[in-house]
Amino acid sequence: MNRPGIERRHFPLWLAVVLLLQPGPVAAVEVATEAGAGLEYSDNLQRAPEGDEVSDWIRVGRLGGQLEAERSTLEGNALLNAEYLQYARGTFADEIRGRGSADLAWHIAPERLTWRLEDRLSVIEEDSTDPLSPENRQQVNVLSTGPDYRIRLGGTRYWDSSARLTDVRYSARDTDNQRLGLQTRLGWRPTPRLEGQLALEASTARFPEQGELRDYDRQDLYGRLIRTAATSRVVLDLGASRIQRAAGEDVTGGLGRLAWERQLNPTTELRVDVAGEYSDSATDLLGRSDGAVRDPSTTESTADVFFARRAGMRLRRESPRGRLDLDARMEERDYEVAPLDQQRSRLALTWSLEAGARSRLDLFGHREEYDYDEGREDLDRSLGLRWRTRLRRSVELRLEGEGAERRSNTGSGYQEGRFLLELRYRG
User: CA–CA distance from 13 to each of 18, 19, 194, 323 (Å)?
Assistant: First the structure.
């Protein structure tokens, strides 16, 4: 069986860390480290239907770190978390899995030429219609790098050009691919709060293992309007996309994106976004600097192009007593090849409450519905409770329990109970 690991490629993450830690004339560096050991129990590891459950105790070891640095010509951040899982009863082979990200900007000529690197390491399902489990998960790694160049055309106008080379790799799929993208953008900023842009993007994607079926070229032409106020920001994109596929007919479609974010008060942030556009797994994982953060768990492993209609809302509220995070999303996907056309909706909630000077209580849960055009309907939901307390300044004890279930009209429903006891060190 496949064992997802982080050995496929993690060099760019470490490269970003080394570069950001290099001494320089002007530097602001923040480093946080984490190590933990724990014991986890699941009464249904495979999230199998009733009667096929397999339970086991799992010994868990974790290592992680987060780095943010800013120098005179180099800035960025890196995050990496690695887990070692050992199954006490031998139900599955020991495994290592990792999640991480790196964003690095090297300002070769400040305000003119910048070289950027983005790296994403995530865990997703191998078969997206089955629940995430030890036999149905894999690593996906997306690396993108290239230059940005800006030419000033007077006091209020500019011309931006960029190029990106992107490499996408899956640990358990033959859909690895490489992409080359070029972008040119004319911008106009008549006032500090208003900005307009006309953008043309062209890219090509090549699949070494399935090129005759999946290779494609893509062009996007759109206009962008950015409106910034003291406590809010609006970004609107309108345009069109065209995709020439190696197999099948060429496709064209509209492109529209709207993102609105507002600081409602000093403790509350609200973001609303809607979009209609062609997308794919690599684009979703990398995200856009001005777009909504994509949840890796919503990423399909097919590497197919799909047209997505999306709407979402995220609310964050902080107070001296705790924090509330609410995320609601709706999405419709129309795939070009894969038989995965679907409508999905998701509601996720996390409520954190300070329980004294040393302790914190988290209530978390989610509800997600999938309605596939082929007739399949799935409903996933979970509810959990997490208690954390500091034993010493840098040592934390964590207790966590969660119940999850799926209801499906295909007989693939399941129920799972999970418990975790862990000791963590934070530096």
Answer: 9, 10, 36, 30
Give dist(CA 99, CA 116) in Å, integer: 20
Q: Is the pLDDT of residue 293 over 60?
A: no
Distance CA 62, CA 86 (A): 12
Token pair of 273 as six digits: 């976004």
- Report the distance separating Cα 122 and Cα 395, nearest Å: 27
Under 8 Å between Cβ of 4 and 97: yes
For the segment 96-114, what is each residue's pLDDT rounded down to a tens digit? Answer: 888 888 888 999 998 899 9
Q: What are the tokens at 352?
A: 């954190």
Q: Could you tell me the CA-to-CA distances from 260 to 63, 232, 233, 424 in Å, in that order?
A: 36, 7, 6, 38
Burial of residue 333 (CB within 10 Å: 0-12, 13-18, 19+) is buried
Label residue 382 by pLDDT band (50, 70, 90).
very high
What is the C-alpha separation between 106 and 118, in angstroms, rounded? 12
Indicate the fold that domain 126-426 takes in CATH: Porin (2.40.160)
The amino acid at residue 306 is F
Each domain of the chain, given as residue ranges in start order, spans 1-125, 126-426
Assess contact for 119 and 87: CB atoms under 8 A. no
DSSP 8-state class, residue 301: S
Identify the CA nearest to 67 among candidates 17, 5, 110, 135. 17
The maximal CA–CA distance of the chain, rounded, in angstroms, is 71
Output the DSSP codes for 359-404.
Answer: EEEEEEEEEEEEEETTS-EEEEEEEEEEEEEESSSSEEEEEEEEEE
> Residue 211 has what pLDDT?
58
Dihedral sign from CA coordinates of 295, 326, 275, 187 = negative
Model pTM score = 0.85
Q: Residue 111 — left, alpha, or beta (φ > 0 → left; ψ -120 to 50 → alpha)?
A: left
Question: C-alpha distances in angstroms, 49 versus 139, 152, 290, 304?
Answer: 25, 62, 41, 29
